Each structure stands twice: as structure tokens, then as C-alpha cells.
Amino acid sequence: MSSVPSPAVLLPVRLLAPSGPWDEVVADWAREGTVLAYGVVPEWVPSCGADADRLAADEPCRWAALRGERLRARFLASRLLLRSVVGAVTGTGWRGVRPDRTPLGRPYVRGLPGLRVSLSHSGPVLAVAVSGHGAIGVDTERAGRGTSLSPAHVCTAEEAGRLAGLRDDERAAELLRLWTLKEAYTKALGVGLRRSPRSFGFAPGARGPVLRDGGEEEPDPHRRWSFATRLVRSALPEPYLLSVAAAQPADSGRAAVASGRSASDMSPLRTA
Fold it and tell me: Region Disordered: which residues (predicted)?
């Protein structure tokens, strides 16, 4: 079974502030059942002490363990962004959303078992993905950052072979892209990096990365997966990568369609 792009990876990436625009997010959800958005921490830190207390109560143990204003600000901002996106698509408003985590750390929303959410942060950037179709994962990293990643620890033999033929700068960029894709996929599975990134890989495909899990393409007959990496620039001092892994039931009958729209701050990365 080939990897078919799903609506989640074809939608524009929305740069959001607390003021919106929420009509575009709601329209994305109504048309595709998925939303992919990002924001920056300073805009999403709540100004009201009561709101901050409400957000801190989402995960009281985790909140209590955080030390330093920077970490606490990022926690509050990420929860407000996640709550706001879910509140917009469900019509409840952010105060009516109750996020939580499974014992393995996978985020979910209480009372909405059919909704899948994923959250990521890097530097000032927060990314959130929401799907009504199935598992979803998002990961973000600053593009071009120095990295201690090694192909020997991240890549399958097939991936390492492709990397070996690239120039040093191309190799570093491609390795970071593969890393974010693998993070997004393991987040979608709910296992995180408890699963070795060398146990699965991605091959270039005509319409996006193709999953090769243990050497086999698309191993789960009940789900189809699609993947994409985007480079986002708006309101950021440096560009950031956003990688997304999205699943849909193989028998859902929902065709993958392109919206025909693009965001000026979003550009696809080379996948071959």
C-alpha cells in the first residue's frame, strides 16, 4: 500500500495569535477534519493570572516540577495554543477544553476520544496538530541548527546510504528533516523515542516521504500514513521545520484532496 498524502499535510500551516484568525482554522476543520498551526511563545503567554492558574492545573505535577520563568512561560503558552485550536474546532472555546496526557506522555483531550492531538516546541516556536481522522504527530526544530545527530544513531542502512552521497550541508539538512519526521511518526504512534529511529525509515516518493517500517512499506493494513515537512518563516527570526505524520483508516473512503491554497510563509522542502 503506497503512502497517499492526507488532508493534514496539504493544508496551509496557520500562524496563529490569540486573536486568530479563527475563521480559517474552523474552515480547515470543516473541510478536511485536520488543523496544523504554529505560534510563538511571547504571543501566547496568558496575561491574566486566573487564566495562567487554569492552564497550570492541566498538569499540576508537571507544572510543579518546572523551574525557571522560561520553561513555565512555554508550558502556559503551549497549553493555551492547544486549547485554543481545539476550542475553535469544537466550538467550546479554550476554557472548555481539558488536555491531559496518557501514562506514556501522549497528549489527549478529556471527553473527546475521537480527537487526536499533538504538540511540539523548539525555541520560541510552538506547533500543534489536531485530527478527527486518526493518529497525528508533529515535530519542530530550527532549520540549520547545529546538531549532534549521527546517521549511525538515527538512520536505516538505506537512509544512511542516501546521505553518504550528499554534500556536508545537504547531509546535515536532510538528517535533521529525517529526525523531525521520525519524531512526528513516533509521537503519532504514542511511543515517542522508546522506539528506535533506526527501526524504520523514509524513502523519497513522488508525492512525499514514504514510510518503510522494518523494510516493509505501510505495514499496517488498517491505516494509511502520510508525511510532510514544511519550512515556516513568518514572525520568526530564523526558519523552522515542521514535520507532520498523519494516519487515516485505510477503508475510510475519504479521498485525499488538495485545498488549492498555500501560505506565503510556507514552502515544501525537497524530499529526494
Answer: 248-272
Domain ranges of the chain: 7-251
pTM, to two decimals: 0.85
pLDDT tens digits, 39-57: 999 999 999 999 999 999 9
User: First vs last Cα of the chain: how many Å apart?
Assistant: 20
Which residues 6+ apart lie within 8 Å of 141 measured at CB?
122, 176, 179, 180, 240, 241
Let me know if domain 7-251 sits in CATH 3.90.470.20: yes
Report the residue count for the chain: 272
Distances (CA, A) of 177 to 104, 140, 172: 25, 10, 9
Determine how β-strand 210-213 pairs with β-strand 216-217: antiparallel
Cβ count near 64 (within 10 Å)? 9
